[in-house]
User: Which sequence fits this backbone?
């Protein structure tokens, strides 16, 4: 493309002015429109937008490094945010991402964020190797008495939906579930009950259970 | 329209002061790590390549909060950080005209010392401001600057992040590591004369010599648009900012429009981008108005793919730039043999990372253009064509937190080797006086520290 005529070049410059003006107008219009997320509670809208940068739009994260929060138990979310803020939850990703994120959150913001995500429709999974899904389902429903693995559903609910401070597991990322079970077993993530529960699980058990739950 | 020296310097100092005043909220820049309380690896894959989260941090105006300064026994640190780059440089053939204060070969150097400020100034306003002492050219100069206002909102239930960036380098406002301002190689030896010998205009020629404003929007984390224009300074201001070009450097006529469009998508641990960008500039050669201007039209296509996990990471970048040159002024003065020339460049790079600590990179670079004997007097054939490879190994020990006495420190120790297969149209005797392309092969051992 050659600018052989003065008129054409001026048109390019004018176009540049127009683009910038248009974009600037959009920006000004944006300043008066609704906040980034339909968070329902004005003060936490900005925080939810920040959370979404890793945890995804509508609480459905893309990367399994970051757990899905949509439809998670409110009490559980509050407890985790408090644990990140006081650094009592210390698995590696907690350290890399969440200690900084939670440090500036007030109790009110934590409560508001937890309420927001708990109210979102949970993500459902799907797929997974049928053999692993069947094995995982059996461990989840009945445990493995011989090896001291309790039935997960006893606390996490029949449909892995969680209750109160015990988290929803259904539809969570496969890799995230695997990482947490390993972190519990090694005590990188401190939780006495889950440490006892995960210690007897083999790598294959963890694969199976995580496959089943991710598919729910 | 020339930006007057006084007005621009005032704006610059206002920016620096405002940043400092806004510091109460700030408690691969340690400046940003201290602001967010997060480790470098959260935003960066190696350095300075950005992760998807790092891209969003930048697009949201560098304002994401996190750490509480002075909390939990940590000392308050003002919103500053510093960077030192030191190196050892070896070229296959010694330089016949060594740089002032340096030897013909095997030069240790402090490549640069930089000071940064920025981060969150106000709720929606943030910055990246860098000043540099160039230890090879022995000059203090302002470096990359990006002050941006960003906001996010909903359109028909979908997310829109929009902003305005005032910056001094076309493509500096971008968030992928494909466009020239942030593309590999991030550091390189200053002692090689042919690396590559010829570049398109968008590939750094205007860096820090212009100021411009671009407006951008990212819709639904799927579509990104950025567009604006740049202008140059008066010569007085150029000198004050330490970027005084040589007396015979080209100057811009009028505004230089810039545009950028990209499609992006993240899924699982993968992220991909495909885009286009460009600028169009009208320049007086050597600042001389008597023959009119040369006109340059740059169009680029770029693509990036990343796979990021704790243990393994893969990253591919590709950039192709096509430049049309209408050299009315050069042709009239006899500086070019042709009225019109073109120049094309291709860069392809792949990096593998292990444990976010060890990295290996392979990069292929190439440029092809019209042969023009008057334009390229150093080329026996008149051709600007060149190509070669760069290989690099890096060790980053502090990506998950620095030493206990300074947890925000980071370091990259790297060994880089660049080999030239062709320079100025030929592998052997490209200048007619016996110089071979591989004579410019360069070994670059560097230590890059950030505080």
Assistant:
């Amino acid at each position: 493309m050659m600018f052989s005529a003065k008129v054409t070049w001026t048109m390019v410059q004018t176009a540049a002015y127009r683009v910038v003006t248009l974009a600037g107008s959009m920006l000004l219009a944006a300043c008066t429109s609704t906040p980034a997320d339909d968070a329902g509670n004005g003060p936490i809208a900005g925080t939810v937008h920040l959370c979404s940068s890793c945890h995804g739009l509508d609480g459905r994260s893309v990367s399994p490094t970051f757990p899905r929060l949509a439809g998670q138990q409110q009490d559980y979310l509050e407890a985790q945010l408090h644990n990140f803020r006081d650094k009592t939850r210390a698995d590696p990703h907690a350290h890399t991402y969440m200690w900084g994120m939670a440090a500036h959150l007030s109790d009110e913001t934590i409560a508001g964020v937890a309420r927001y995500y708990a109210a979102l429709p949970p993500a459902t999974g799907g797929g997974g190797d049928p053999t692993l899904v069947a094995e995982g389902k059996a461990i989840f429903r009945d445990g493995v008495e011989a090896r001291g693995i309790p039935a997960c559903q006893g606390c996490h609910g029949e449909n892995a939906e969680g209750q109160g401070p015990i988290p929803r597991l259904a539809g969570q990322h496969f890799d995230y579930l695997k990482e947490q079970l390993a972190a519990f077993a090694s005590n990188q993530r401190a939780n006495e009950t889950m440490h006892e529960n995960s210690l007897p699980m083999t790598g294959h058990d963890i694969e199976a259970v995580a496959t089943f739950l991710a598919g729910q | 329209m020339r930006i007057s020296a006084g007005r621009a310097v005032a704006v610059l100092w206002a920016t620096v002061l405002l940043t400092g005043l806004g510091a109460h909220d700030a408690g691969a820049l340690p400046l940003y790590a201290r602001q967010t309380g997060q480790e470098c690896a959260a935003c960066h894959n190696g350095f300075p390549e950005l992760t998807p989260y790092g891209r969003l941090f930048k697009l949201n105006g560098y304002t994401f909060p996190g750490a509480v300064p002075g909390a939990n026994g940590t000392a308050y640190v003002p919103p500053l950080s510093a960077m030192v780059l030191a190196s050892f440089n070896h070229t296959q053939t010694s330089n016949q005209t060594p740089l002032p204060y340096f030897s013909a070969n095997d030069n240790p150097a402090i490549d640069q010392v930089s000071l940064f400020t920025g981060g969150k100034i106000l709720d929606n306003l943030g910055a990246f401001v860098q000043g540099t002492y160039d230890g090879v050219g022995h000059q203090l100069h302002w470096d990359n600057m990006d002050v941006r206002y960003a906001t996010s909102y909903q359109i028909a239930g979908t997310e829109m992040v929009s902003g305005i960036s005032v910056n001094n380098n076309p493509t500096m406002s971008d968030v992928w590591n494909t466009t020239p301002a942030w593309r590999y190689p991030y550091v390189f030896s200053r002692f090689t004369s042919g690396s590559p010998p010829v570049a398109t205009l968008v590939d750094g020629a205007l860096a820090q010599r212009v100021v411009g404003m671009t407006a951008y929007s990212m819709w639904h984390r799927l579509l990104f648009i950025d567009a604006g224009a740049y202008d140059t300074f008066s010569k007085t201001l150029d000198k004050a900012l330490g970027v005084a070009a040589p007396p015979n450097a080209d100057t811009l006529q009028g505004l230089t429009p810039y545009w950028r469009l990209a499609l992006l998508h993240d899924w699982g641990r993968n992220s991909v981008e495909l885009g286009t960008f460009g600028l169009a500039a009208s320049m007086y050669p050597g600042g001389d108005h008597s023959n009119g201007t040369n006109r340059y039209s740059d169009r680029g296509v770029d693509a990036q793919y990343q796979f990021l996990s704790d243990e393994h990471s893969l990253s591919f970048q590709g950039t192709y730039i096509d430049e049309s040159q209408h050299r009315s002024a050069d042709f009239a003065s006899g500086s070019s043999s042709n009225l019109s020339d073109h120049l094309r460049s291709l860069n392809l790079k792949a990096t593998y990372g292990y444990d976010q600590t060890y990295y290996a990179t392979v990069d292929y670079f190439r440029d092809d253009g019209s042969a023009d004997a008057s334009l390229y007097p150093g080329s026996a054939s008149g051709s600007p064509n060149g190509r070669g490879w760069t290989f690099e190994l890096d060790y980053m020990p502090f990506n998950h937190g620095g030493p206990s006495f300074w947890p925000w420190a980071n370091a990259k120790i790297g060994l880089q080797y660049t080999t030239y297969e062709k320079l100025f149209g030929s592998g052997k005797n490209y200048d007619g006086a016996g110089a071979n392309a591989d004579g410019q092969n360069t070994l670059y051992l560097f230590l890059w520290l950030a505080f």
